[in-house]
Amino acid sequence: MISKGFARQTDEGIVLADTVKPKRAKRQTQESQARPIRDDNTLTYEGNAVIEEGDTVIANVVVKAGDLTVVGTIVGDALVVGGDLYVEQGGHITGNAKVINGEVIKDEAGRIDGYIDKTSSTANSYRETEKKFTRSSTRLNANWVSETTNLDNFVFRYNRVEGLFLGVGSDKRYYWDGRKSYTTYGSFGYGLKSRGWRGNLGLSRQFAFDDGQLIEIGVEGHNLTDTKDNWIIGLSENTAAAILIHEDYRDYFRRTGVGFNVGYAIQQDYVTGQLRTEYLIDDYKSMENRTEWSIFGGNKRFRFNPPIDEGKMHSILASAGLSTVTKTLYGPEGWSIFGTAEFADRDFGGDFKFNQYVLDVRRYQPLGRYHNLNVRLRVGTTEGTVPAQKIFELGGLSTLNAFPFKSDVGNRMILANAEFIINGDFLGDLAFWPSWL
Hints:
Layout: E1 6-10, E2 13-15, E3 37-39, E4 42-46, E5 49-51, E6 55-57, E7 60-64, E8 68-70, E9 73-74, E10 78-81, E11 85-87, E12 92-93, E13 97-100, E14 104-106, E15 111-112, E16 116-119, E17 154-159, E18 163-170, E19 182-191, E20 196-208, E21 213-226, H1 235-245, E22 253-267, E23 272-286, E24 311-323, E25 326-328, E26 331-344, E27 354-366, E28 371-384, E29 392-394, E30 408-410, E31 412-422
Parallel strand pairs: 4-7, 5-8, 6-9, 7-10, 8-11, 9-12, 10-13, 11-14, 12-15, 13-16
Antiparallel strand pairs: 1-2, 1-6, 3-4, 17-18, 18-19, 19-20, 20-21, 21-22, 22-23, 23-24, 24-26, 25-26, 26-27, 27-28, 28-31, 29-30
């Protein structure tokens, strides 16, 4: 029986650590993985360490001045000093996980059975000068990625056309290291007031490169309660507004069909990018208000959900995005640029003919320990006969706050916004402010 050291599962049982040749994780540098120092029931690394898929360590693992990536199993505790702990899909730590001066980045399918302890050498009320960048191992970390689930693998939303919607789902995963060639994703749920099932199911074949890049070919079928207002307000925020203050800031329609896509994606330490082309075959239908329930709001009523131009739409949708936005100890920092071009034509077999172009540029800029300046420029234009579900609307929340909601409508738009954010932690610097606030 092996009580410590690296081991690999084989047809004949567990093989000793010396036979295992560890490989570096894609996110780490080109330097070779550090060799462990064995001490009774502990393995200690100076530098980066990787527990590969299929490997089992029956010992405590300590990593100093490097990152620990777990795709296999650690039967024991994990301690990382001066680095980050990555627990990827299939990774399992049976004991506790502690990180000093670093971050814990755990994939949804990763497991830590014990407690998670993350400490820093500086006070929590201050943000360190050194910036740390974290990215999930199997996600495309960009603000243009559509939301599928909002509570792990659970779908929870509330709006005026479905009422309470409950379901399950899984976001799309990107296997940058090539350990899987196929990925499936989707969601499935039921609207209690609309009395309808909604969902989607997608399959993607991915071809990964060695440096965080991949090409994919995929297909997706869907029957969705959809909206064009994702850029105005997020799903969770809109659900909270509908439940608490009787306000639903999205407009909805039903979209049923299938899509075929091919794309390229890259995700490295400081940059995320995507090129994608889709051929969409969709049937659009209007939806009506189904509920007026809300906790607060008095005699308020939800806005009327506007009708759309119903019919079949066959279109080609091309998109390109580039993001350098990273989560730092000063807040988000970087650029996000995303553009789409959609071409619908009756020659494709649908009922609509138009071309639409949209460009969204954002800059997130920390100005110091407590201050951030965020700027957005959004422009769009449409040619041809524009269906109602593709029209541009400005006014109110997240666009022009001093104007009525969606008061300006047209086939062209240009919008510039800037926001200055003050972090409430600055109160800790005020000598007269109570220390317990």
